């Protein structure tokens, strides 16, 4: 059952121009900006059918969200706080479930892998391909769940779900688990590092 009407998707986007500085040694600024926007478009397309909100204060992202007809709220400064703000937005719209999706998932097509009944007391975690980060996380909207992004977030989010007494379903999905974090990830996209002089 697709819980689109009672599930909201939160997509934090720091900036197209300044996002993912770890790729700075591999891509020139224009290419990095275009890639960031292309991946964000891919993620938004993959979340069609759900209530969605972009969390960003970057002017180019706010303008992009408006062009796409997407709700956008300000970025409070950290990924954890962005997820919290998105959850607050979802709760204010009576969503029963929140799915936080990173904006750098170039192979995302849909959220079928993480769909559960919106009212179920289960946390669904998609770890990244390294088994370290959390590119997709689905939680009941009213759960006192503390987001804990950054290196090692997969383990922390699993522990947090257990702390609040929720069952955990881990979904290892090649499309939703592949986020572009480091220059080596560009090979899978057919991109090559720019030569440095």
Description:
A 7-stranded mixed beta sheet has the order 3-2-1-4-6-5-7, sandwiched between helices. The C terminus is likely disordered. Helices cover 27% and strands 17% of the residues. The protein has 4 helices and 7 strands; from the N terminus they run E-H-E-H-E-H-E-E-E-H-E. The chain has one domain: Spore Coat Polysaccharide Biosynthesis Protein SpsA, Chain A. Strand 1, helix 1 and strand 2 form a beta-alpha-beta unit. It is α/β, with parallel strands linked by helices and 197 residues long.
Task: Give a summary of the structure in a few sentences.
With 197 residues, the chain is of the alpha/beta class. The protein has 4 helices and 7 strands, in the order βαβαβαβββαβ.
Computed over alpha carbons, the radius of gyration is: 16 Å
The order of strands across the largest sheet is 3-2-1-4-6-5-7
Number of strands: 7
| Number of domain modules | 1
Helical fraction equals: 25-40%
Classification by helices and strands: alpha/beta
Largest sheet: 7 strands, mixed
What is the name of the CATH topology?
Spore Coat Polysaccharide Biosynthesis Protein SpsA, Chain A
**N- to C-terminal distance:** 54 Å
Low-confidence parts lasting 5 or more residues at pLDDT below 50?
Answer: 193-197
Mean pLDDT: 88
Q: Based on CA inertia axes, which overall geometry fits?
A: globular
| CATH-derived architecture | Alpha-Beta Complex
The proportion of residues in beta strands is: 15-25%
Classified by CATH, the class is: Alpha Beta
CATH superfamily: Spore Coat Polysaccharide Biosynthesis Protein SpsA, Chain A
Number of helices: 4
Question: Element order, helices and strands?
Answer: EHEHEHEEEHE
């Amino acid at each position: 059952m697709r819980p689109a009407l009672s599930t909201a998707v939160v997509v934090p986007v720091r900036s197209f121009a300044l996002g993912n500085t770890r790729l700075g040694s591999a891509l020139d600024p224009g290419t990095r900006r275009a890639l960031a926007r292309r991946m964000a478009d891919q993620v938004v397309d993959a979340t069609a059918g759900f209530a969605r909100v972009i969390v960003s204060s970057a002017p180019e992202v706010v303008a992009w969200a408006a062009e796409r007809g997407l709700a956008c709220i300000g970025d409070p400064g950290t990924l954890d706080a962005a997820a919290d703000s998105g959850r607050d937005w979802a709760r204010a719209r009576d969503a029963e479930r929140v799915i936080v999706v990173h904006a750098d998932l170039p192979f995302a097509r849909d959220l079928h892998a993480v769909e559960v009944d919106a009212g179920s007391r289960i946390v669904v975690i998609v770890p990244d391909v390294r088994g370290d980060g959390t590119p997709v996380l689905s939680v009941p909207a009213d759960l006192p769940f503390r987001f804990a992004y950054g290196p090692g977030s997969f383990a922390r989010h699993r522990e947090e779900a257990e702390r609040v007494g929720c069952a955990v379903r881990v979904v290892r999905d090649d499309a939703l688990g592949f986020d572009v974090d480091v220059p080596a990830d560009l090979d899978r996209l057919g991109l090559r590092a720019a030569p440095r002089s």
